[in-house]
Design a protein that fits this description.
alpha+beta; 6-stranded antiparallel beta sheet; 5-stranded mixed beta sheet; 33% helix; 25% strand; Nucleotidyltransferase, domain 5; single chain
Length: 542
């Protein structure tokens, strides 16, 4: 071992599934079965045994740097979201991203282990909006990763968490357009949909290899002793059901039908890469059988690889991802979020003591200095507040008086405006009477009965009057016009529509002008004297 190897931290690759943990250091590996409580957390006995086993496997010396542990976790409980945020520096992004995560996910960011991957940057739009960037955010409950993180830290490793389903996609050949990666486990499967190397959705399907080998012997863990499993080939001629006979075509079709229904309910593109089927192909061309059940022109292709000891498809995918882009996987789930790496200068003990003493003295003196500095400013503010408080009472009384005038003022002018706008050409009003209670009486003459009906309809449609009725209608002695008497009631203030005067228009037609308006004896009663309007011209009648 040379000096460079001693200084560089070792790399450890792990896949953490629902019922097992696989570890590989490049030259050696091991698999450990996991025992969980009802809520999914590891039991105390399991955590204790796993810590001991990992310490022996890592075998880190006290003078060696911590090993980097790349952990591929299962898709159970993982959520993916695509978010669009304003483009800006990383500090601004880390300030806005937790706020957006809080609105998109059911749990606050403090209870989530989350990470993001930048997808693209958009240029300003036509509406003048600024540049934006699209991010892919993955999140899972923080407590589901805290057990693994504490175990790895106790074993002398620095954990880096990512998705196992995403790591497996690095084993697939490049494919244009959307595609999916299906990994079969013992009693469940994981399906991830990719588009140009970016995950779109990830799902856990309630179907596993036990649906074909369910009659075989049951083992603890993730199937290390199963007759069919990842990297454990089934002898030629072995049966799926454990009865010594091969499954029939009908039995295979019946077993694959639930899986086909689950996959057809997802958006998977045009091709599905299948993993975890080692041993199934001895008696069954699994991708072909699955493709025939799916239909819709979907293609299924098996991904062949040879796992090392303690290896898996996710571990091999992680290794290949780091070979392409050294450093970190493209999507890392952070258990503890931070804006960057901070280095603490190692000051001498005397400098630390002096700094602590100075901060303590500053904390004691700061309140007094602030009081002395802002005393005059605060006195001026208090004097201004007291002056304003004295004026508030006068303002409130004046406002109440003005509001009372506005609410109690009879809308005489509004009523006349509505009446003038509704009157047809050639109308003559002999008398318009109104009082403060809203009673309106109108007497005049119109050309014919149709104009009387139109006038009543317009008064009703104006939204200002209610109970508009024709009290009397009779033709004049010369049969040229119709004398009419109308009665109405204007609506209360809150329910009537305020009229809006139309802009004046130049016209050669004669206008109806009020001749005289008189105020009757009661102060709350208004009478308008006869208002005459010359007969409309021939052009206006037409």
């Amino acid at each position: 071992m040379n000096a460079r190897e001693l200084m560089n931290p070792a790399q450890l690759f792990l896949e953490i599934s629902q019922d097992s943990l696989k570890a590989n250091s490049g030259t050696a590996g091991f698999e450990f079965p996991l025992e969980r409580l009802g809520e999914g957390r590891l039991t105390e006995a399991c955590k204790s045994d796993l810590t001991v086993q990992l310490q022996r496997f890592i075998n880190r010396k006290s003078w060696q740097p911590r090993a980097r542990a790349y952990c591929a976790i299962g898709a159970r409980g993982v959520s993916l979201r695509r978010l669009i945020l304003p483009a800006g520096p990383s500090e601004e992004l880390m300030r806005l991203l937790p706020l957006q995560i809080e609105s998109e996910f059911p749990l606050p960011p403090e209870q989530l282990a989350w990470g993001y991957q930048a997808l693209s940057e958009r240029q300003p739009g036509a509406a003048g909006t600024g540049r934006t960037q699209e991010l892919l955010v993955a999140a899972v409950k923080k407590e589901s990763l805290e057990d693994y993180s504490s175990i790895l830290v106790a074993c002398g490793a620095s954990p880096v968490f990512t998705l196992a389903a995403l790591a497996r996609s690095y084993l697939c050949p490049p494919s244009p357009g959307p595609y999916a990666v299906l990994n079969l486990d013992r009693n469940y499967s994981e399906l991830i949909t990719m588009d140009e190397g970016v995950p779109i959705a990830v799902r856990v399907l309630a179907w596993g290899r036990e649906n074909l080998t369910g009659l075989g012997p049951k083992t603890r863990g993730n199937g290390r002793d199963e007759p069919v499993g990842l990297g454990v080939p089934t002898p030629q001629g072995a049966s799926f059901g454990g009865s010594g006979e091969h499954l029939t075509e009908a039995a295979i079709s019946e077993a694959l039908e639930p899986l086909a229904r689950l996959i057809n309910g997802q958006a998977v593109g045009r091709r599905i890469y299948v993993m975890g089927i080692a041993g199934l192909q001895a008696d069954l061309d699994f991708p072909v059988q699955l493709a025939s059940r799916l239909g819709n022109g979907l293609e299924c292709q098996a991904v062949d690889f040879t796992p090392r000891e303690g290896g898996s498809a996710a571990i091999l995918g992680l290794q290949r991802a780091l070979e392409r882009e050294p450093g970190l996987p493209p999507l890392v789930l952070q258990v503890k979020q931070s804006n960057g790496k901070a280095q603490v200068n190692r000051l001498a003990p005397l400098k630390w003591g002096a700094l602590a003493l100075g901060l303590a003295l500053l904390g004691l003196l700061l309140p007094y200095a602030e009081a002395l500095t802002l005393k005059s400013h605060l006195a001026n503010k208090l004097a201004a507040v007291k002056t304003d408080q004295g004026r508030l009472g006068t303002i409130d009384r004046e406002l109440d008086f003005l509001q009372y005038l506005q609410q109690s003022e009879p809308p005489y002018l509004d009523a006349l405006l509505v009446l003038a706008k509704a009157a047809p050409p050639g109308t003559r009003f002999d008398l318009v009477s109104m009082n403060r209670r809203g009673d309106v009486s109108i007497r005049g003459s119109l050309r014919d009965g149709q104009q009387v009906a139109d006038l009543r309809s317009k008064l009703i449609d104006s939204g200002f009057f209610a109970n508009v009725g024709i009290e009397e209608q009779a033709p004049t002695p010369d049969r040229q016009k119709v004398n009419v008497r109308l009665s109405a009631q204007w609506k209360p203030l809150g329910s009537r529509t305020a009229p809006s005067p139309e802009p004046a228009r130049a016209s050669s037609e004669p206008k109806t002008l009020p001749a005289q308006m008189t105020v009757g004896a009661p102060p709350d009663h208004v009478n308008t004297a006869p208002m005459a309007q010359p007969p409309a011209s021939k052009s206006s009648r037409n």
